[in-house]
Specification:
This protein is mainly β and 890 residues long. Helix content is 6%, strand content 33%. It has a six-stranded mixed sheet, with no helix packed on it. Strands 3-61-60-59 form a four-stranded antiparallel sheet, with no helix packed on it. The longest helix has 18 residues, at 73-90. The radius of gyration is 25 Å and the shape is globular.
Length: 890
């Protein structure tokens, strides 16, 4: 049900971490600037009921939200998600720059075990797979083959295309898109902020995604590849020194022999001819909040120097306009220009383009190749706070080509809404996520021809007088749509995935294409492509052929495939639902829609699956979600059932964005779900209603679960509350699945287990009193906050009464998942790598080789003796733990 895609919530999924220090910037973002608006929020359950009602009214079930809009939950949840993903890595304080770099440097000298990781999800992922058209699927929406979020694109006139994943690094295609090859895997950061070719055809890679989403990561600076058609990025190719480490980078702009960088710590510049030497800080509106400043430890520091873009006057390159400001609003927000004395002052009087702090938020510029036009998108903090439908202030043009105007308004959200947009419903109209979704690209041969990216792709060929929507959000609200593809009219052409982030124009064999990157990967169409009567493109082509895997998993589940043999592998994804790959599949399908979160899969039958949307909104199927859409005319034929525990109805107050769920390791019919309460049910995959959950324990007002584990009826629950750095507290509760024996462990702030986010448990199957816990965040060496402590993995042999820090030689990096292996060894998934400690030893090694440097969110043992790793940026990988019998490699 697609409308579930309240998806991002994250936003954050950002912010922040690829370099992983996740640290700062936008990450902290989820402040009070865009909290859920209770007057217009719709919960997924309500949307589900609307779908059913729509079936009987003859309307599209998937478009059942009023006029087909996505509902306000999408944007609101994005903000909440942002906060929560980041809190896990930053609370209880602020993380100093360099934390991730130090961990990565230590990793380089560590030993590796024998064995290679196998790439499980290196296959095309068809979001419209006709096998999976059950009631909770997005299939048939029109996005086709998808991958994870693409946040940077560059293309030349020889068919070479470069695509940067949000946390997956850079991929190269020699064929105009497709047959991709990773070319940045040797770098310490795979988080993409910007990707661009300069006049000399060198490829510049700015690391640190700037989308302020919950799953964005900071980077380690800017790298240059002199021969992008043949080479690969190297750590030694970094421009300057460490000045841009632990930042996010929104844009790189070139002016003569200077490159400008808009970052989360102000605007910087560097020579493009001499790449050594430090970056120069050009402007930071609040320098006291920068590292080393008197207010660097202030909790608001990450928001105080955010720069979004730079516009250079093509006729006078010394005249520059800076777009600076936090998307949620701050007094420093505005457009700045350099004065004769070298200082930077707010600009004013530019025409229609706002310059006041209330209305300058996230801004993107786009210049014509001949310098005759300059375009701008402006997201308004004031409008975002007051208008439930959109945060977009407007789209503007300077017909002089100068950033100093005069600027003219050429579109607002109401004009774009009327251009063929799929977003017509109250609470979710064009620009609702303009703080997250923006791109601008001008046709190099026609200054009046512009591609605009928000949630959808818009296009004008007359300088903004009129617009069309060649890339609508999805096809569900249009009359041409049907869940049965044989009943769709020719007007329902494939569209792009929603939520646009990157754009480029390139050529292949004399044909010129527009390339767009979004939450579903990378797509292309002819630059002057064909459209139908509604202005929707008829010629989009997905370039997500499986050789580019930037999928962002939160979870993984593995079970025996009783139909085809082998195993079925499934997992929850940021904004790409739940993927499923069965025994003989050559293409993955999507059996649940929206954001996929945690999952429970029956190890003995991979078609028994429970999937969490978000906030404990759980759904279950016992046939892999296989359905041809017959439920749309006969609701009794639906085989996906909503079984959410009651905390789901409380949203963020009742559960984390990605809330923990699990089955008991000794009884697959006993499930535990953690929100404010600890919920237990004993029907396994036969559950059909949320009313079948029992409340085993109340964690307390303001407390929500962050991790759960259950073995033989003994349950461990980690919680936080408050969960941000303003009074952060954490704890562990232990009790029985039958509701008896519950108690809180004594975990003083300065105790053995640090006052940081509890991310995972694993219980010894031979002794439920023997338990391991993984702790997120960086240690107090990097984290300025009360009780941050040291260590990332701890062991208790008496049910949590006493704990021992077994982190030993682990790099100081956030830990996400811990798993006790059958051979007695211990595996730990972190934001950097997966580590392994052999039984009877104390030191850790890197587990295997060739696993990309990206965040490992969850480890799960499969019935095939493989350990599966869900990474947040490079798909799912597996490792045969039987390979660990041999010696380790130096």
């Amino acid at each position: 049900m697609m409308l579930q895609r309240h998806r991002r919530r994250f936003i954050t999924c950002t912010v922040v971490a690829a370099a992983f220090a996740l640290v700062s910037t936008q990450a902290f973002a989820a402040s009070a600037d865009i909290r859920p608006r209770p007057w217009n929020a719709r919960h997924q359950a309500d949307i589900g009921r609307q779908h059913i009602k729509a079936l009987h009214s003859g309307k599209s079930a998937f478009a059942a939200s009023e006029n087909g809009g996505g509902g306000s939950d999408e944007a609101e949840n994005s903000a909440e998600g942002t906060a929560q993903y980041t809190e896990a890595r930053t609370a209880p304080g602020v993380v100093a720059p360099g934390a991730y770099g130090a961990a990565w440097a230590q990793l380089q000298s560590m030993k590796h075990t024998n064995g290679d990781w196998d790439h499980v999800t290196k296959k095309a992922y068809n979001s419209d797979d006709p096998r999976y058209r059950d009631i909770n699927s997005n299939s048939s929406g029109g996005s086709g083959n998808v991958t994870g979020r693409i946040t940077g694109i560059a293309a030349d006139d020889q068919g070479y295309v470069y695509a940067g994943g949000a946390n997956g690094g850079v991929f190269r295609s020699k064929t105009g898109g497709g047959n991709w090859q990773p070319i940045a895997d040797k770098l310490p950061s795979l988080s993409t902020g910007a990707l661009t070719l300069d006049a000399s055809k060198r490829l510049w890679y700015a690391t640190g995604e700037s989308n302020t989403g919950a799953t964005s990561y900071v980077g380690t600076g800017v790298y240059v590849l002199p021969d992008p058609q043949h080479g690969q990025f190297q750590p030694g190719g970094r421009v300057g020194g460490a000045e841009l480490e632990s930042t996010t980078i929104h844009a790189l702009r070139f002016a003569g022999t200077t490159v400008w960088a808009a970052t989360s710590r102000g605007v910087w510049s560097h020579s493009t001819t001499t790449l050594s030497g430090p970056w120069k800080l050009e402007f930071a509106p609040n320098p006291d909040y920068l590292p080393g400043g008197s207010k660097a430890a202030d909790e608001s520091a990450p928001y105080k120097n955010i720069a979004n873009d730079i516009a250079v006057d093509p006729k006078e390159p010394n005249k520059v306009l800076l777009a600076v400001g936090w998307r949620g609003g701050d007094t420093y927000n505005g457009l700045y220009t350099k004065q004769a004395d070298g200082s930077w002052k707010p600009a004013s009087g530019l025409g229609d383009l706002p310059t006041d702090s209330a209305n300058v938020g996230n801004v993107t510029f786009g210049a014509a190749a001949d310098g005759s036009r300059l375009y701008a998108i402006d997201q308004s903090p004031a409008q975002m706070a007051s208008n439930p439908d959109s945060g977009l202030k407007g789209v503007y043009v300077s017909k002089s080509g100068s950033p100093f105007g005069p600027w003219t308004l050429i579109a607002d959200y109401t004009k774009l809404k009327a251009s063929g947009s799929a977003l017509q419903g109250a609470g979710y109209m064009p620009g609702i996520q303009s703080w997250y979704n923006q791109f601008l690209q001008v046709d190099p041969n026609n200054a009046d021809h512009v591609y605009l990216g928000l949630e959808e792709v818009f296009e004008t060929k007359n300088g903004g007088t009129s617009w069309i929507t060649p890339g609508p959000y999805w096809n569900f609200p249009f009359p041409c749509w049907s869940v049965d593809p044989t009943k769709q009219t020719g007007d329902c052409s494939p569209t792009t995935h929603s939520d646009q982030h990157a754009v480029a124009i390139g050529s292949l064999k004399g044909k010129t294409y527009a390339y767009v990157g979004n939450d579903g990967g990378i797509y292309r169409r002819p630059l002057n492509g064909a459209v139908d009567s509604g202005g929707h493109a008829k010629d989009w082509q997905s370039l997500n052929d499986g050789t580019i895997d930037t999928l962002q998993y939160y979870s993984v589940g593995v079970g025996k495939d009783l139909t085809y043999g082998g195993v079925s592998v499934t997992g929850g994804l940021q904004d790409n639902g739940q993927s499923i790959l069965r025994g003989r599949d050559k293409v993955m399908g999507s059996n649940f829609g929206g954001d996929g979160a945690d999952t429970i899969t029956d190890p003995n039958n991979g078609c028994n699956i429970a999937q969490e949307y978000v906030y404990l909104d759980m759904w279950v199927t016992q046939n892999c979600g296989v359905n041809n859409g017959s439920w749309s005319t006969d609701p009794t034929k639906a085989t996906e059932y909503e079984v959410a525990p009651p905390d789901k109805d409380l949203g963020g107050a009742g559960a984390r964005f990605i809330a923990p769920i699990t089955s008991d390791t000794k009884d697959t019919n006993t499930w535990v779900a953690g929100g404010r309460h600890v919920w237990v049910q004993h029907k396994g995959f036969a559950i059909r209603s949320g009313a079948e959950w029992k409340n085993a324990y109340d964690l307390g007002d303001g407390h929500v679960a962050t991790a759960v584990a259950s073995s033989g009826g003994t349950v461990y629950v980690g919680w936080c509350g408050p969960c941000n750095n303003q009074g952060f507290t954490r704890g562990i509760a232990v009790g029985n699945a039958d509701g008896t024996g519950w108690h809180q462990l004594n975990l003083p702030v300065d105790g053995t287990i640090p006052n940081r986010y509890i991310s995972a448990f694993d219980v010894d199957p031979a002794n439920a009193q023997h338990v391991y816990v993984a702790v997120n965040g960086f240690s107090r060496k990097w984290t300025e906050g009360p009780g941050a402590g040291y260590g990332h993995v701890f062991e208790s042999k008496n049910g949590g009464t006493d704990w021992t820090d077994i982190s030993a030689n682990l790099p100081d990096v956030p830990a996400n998942s811990v798993k006790l292996l059958p051979n007695g060894g211990l595996a730990l998934g972190t934001d950097l790598a997966t580590f392994y400690r052999p039984a009877g030893t104390t030191d850790w090694q890197v587990l295997g080789t060739n696993l990309p440097t990206t965040a490992v969110m969850q480890l799960r043992l499969g019935p095939d003796s493989n350990l599966y790793a869900a990474t947040h940026g490079r798909g799912i990988w597996s490792f045969d733990v039987r390979r660990l019998k041999g010696r380790t490699n130096d």
